[in-house]
Amino acid sequence: MLETATSIPAVRAAVAAARAEGRVIGFVPTMGALHEGHVRLMEHCRDRSGFTVASIFVNPTQFGPSEDFDRYPRALEDDLDKCREAGVDLVFTPSRAEVYPRGESASTFVEVPVLSRVLEGVVRPTHFRGVATVVLSLLNIVRPDLAVFGRKDYQQQLLIRRMVEDLHLGVEIETAPTVREADGLAMSSRNRYLDPDQRRAATVLFRALEAARRLVGDGERDADRIRQILRSTIESEKTARLEYAAVADAETLEELGEVAPGRAVVALLAARFGTTRLIDNARLTE
Ligand code: PAF
Predict the structure, then answer these.
(1) What is the pTM of this model?
(2) Helix boundaries (H) for the chain
(3) Looking at the annotation, which residues are catalytic?
């Protein structure tokens, strides 16, 4: 049966009871507007733990002043059905005051340097500070043994791993694969903003990543040529506005000159379709 909690003491009591029964505690933080990608994260977590906690909280501090916090989709009843379907045991739906008792502007923040300043961090300078802060806070509330994040937000999961390591949080971080629609578009809560033309155009992200993977598969090692195929594929879609096309080290996100054998390399993309900004990524080497 799905339990829900809105307060920190209620979450802690439910988690303590599960732990007293010897169950491993797994955690999936979300901002709601759940889709099949979230359901898979929850199933991934459930398969590895004896008590699965999910949180639904649209975190204001990770949105910039001109971003979509106010219009971010909220669909609590439907989200709870999806959590039930995925076998979640406890859903935490805190208020802003529960997470930020002093108000957001007076809150303590945590920063993960370097990784938070590149790629997404250039366009969204305060985003990762908000993400790191809320994730640290939620991990401290739930105190799980493991927490699961999606590979679609590649930079985010890397940054969270770094924070957990640097601050000795003692929680295992797992990254679950990106879930895609049949035509390759990575699932995202923001896909619902797209009109039919933009929705069709947005598949160009996946097409660009596939073109890059093919190029590397054919032996291309020059990272600039790989960036070029990423860019030209995106630009072939007239309504897409490319923000970045990176070919980077999979651990440090440092832009590379060469895809050297034995090096883990990832391609990362961000583009706008109308006012909707989407990101995607793919490993170019294993
Ligand atoms: O990936 C998300 O949905 C959010 O960034 C997260 C990790 C739940 C923090 O608000």
Answers:
(1) 0.97
(2) 8-20, 36-48, 76-85, 96-99, 120-123, 127-142, 154-166, 196-201, 204-217, 223-235
(3) 38
